[in-house]
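For reproducibility, we list the full input for the iron/sulfur cluster complex.
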Amino acid sequence: MWALSTFRRETLTVERGEKLVAGAAREAGIPIIASVGALTMDPEAWLPACLAVQAAGARLVQLDLFYLPQPRCSPDNVRKLLDLIGFLADRLDIPVAPKLNIDLPAHYAAEILAGAPAAAIFAIDSVRVPVPIDLTTGMTSRFIHAPNAGDCSLFGEWQKPLSLQYAKILAERVPQALCIGGGLMTGIDAIEAIALGATTVQFATAVIRGGFTKIRSIISEMTHYLDSHGHSGISEVRGLALERFVVDERRILFRDVRAAVDHTICTMCGRCTNQTFCSGIKVVMERVEVLNTCDGCGMCIAACPTKPVKSLSLVPAVRRQEGERNSATESRE
Ligand SMILES: Cc1cc2nc3c(=O)[nH]c(=O)nc-3n(C[C@H](O)[C@H](O)[C@H](O)COP(=O)(O)O)c2cc1C
Ligand code: SF4
Ligand code: SF4
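The corresponding predicted structure, in tokenized form, follows.
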């Protein structure tokens, strides 16, 4: 999902933001997080808005870095970011937390923020990309209302794997609470992020598209998941997937598995054998066969369309003589 993200459309004046925070703090009965942004990294430019939302009842200030100068990962800008966090943490009574985007890669963000006086880390923000181009009409922007626009914001579903990457990497490396969002669309997505170490989750596109009632369905999907899996609360799920990962990367990289075909399910659609990447899977005597050169990467399995069960799976490799078959049906026999 794309949108032009103009400063005026996405931001409020301090006075309007203050009123909104005060109203929400009064009416909603939940802790209010205020998102504060500025166009410069000068801490003095951030302080008045942070103090204003604090006075209005916000319980945490999230620092929106979206409009800051690039490159945000340059040593100079990283130092300024850490100075900004330190400056605001010293002067506010409520905690501060930066909102990351992919301009600070997850491992790097973990390294620089682990010791920072931030109470939490939010990840990830929408990503600045070139506007979609209309190739038929002189290569201008496809936004007819803004033909000269150069960049736009990309957000929504596609971000989920990246957001989960930040969840996992940060959860394993930083002490701060993590608010993970970006591409989360359902309660099940939220459970996944929490299982990968998120403390809380954030939804933007899902609620922008589905309206505020979407929040109810997200909560009910989460509740249903917890009940049906015998969990008494969300804290039981937090980080659960991290514990179950094999920590030793070498065991993942060099584990001895290979693909196997279940010929009773295979429709001979050809998606696995048509891949240009792999010579380890071929049609031999009118059947799909996995050869000894299979490394168990799983690409053919991802391509296999049979449902509900894929006709390809990974099995422990039993290295056979070249030409011998390795099929799931056979290994069950
Ligand atoms: C219209 C709009 C306004 C946004 N305003 C803010 C903001 O003020 N502060 C912020 O941290 N993120 C802001 N975001 C980014 C979202 O919080 C979120 O990080 C991003 O959209 C990815 O999540 P999603 O896939 O759930 O939309 C905004 C996003 C949209 C679409
Ligand atoms: S698992 Fe990977 S290496 Fe093995 S056959 Fe499939 S695509 Fe090829
Ligand atoms: S992708 Fe799956 S169904 Fe299609 S030929 Fe390969 S194993 Fe058979």
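The first strand starts at residue 2 and ends at 3. The pocket of iron/sulfur cluster (ligand 3) is lined by residues 261, 266-272, 288, 303-304, 306, 311-312 (CB under 6 Å). Both points were considered when choosing residues for closer inspection.
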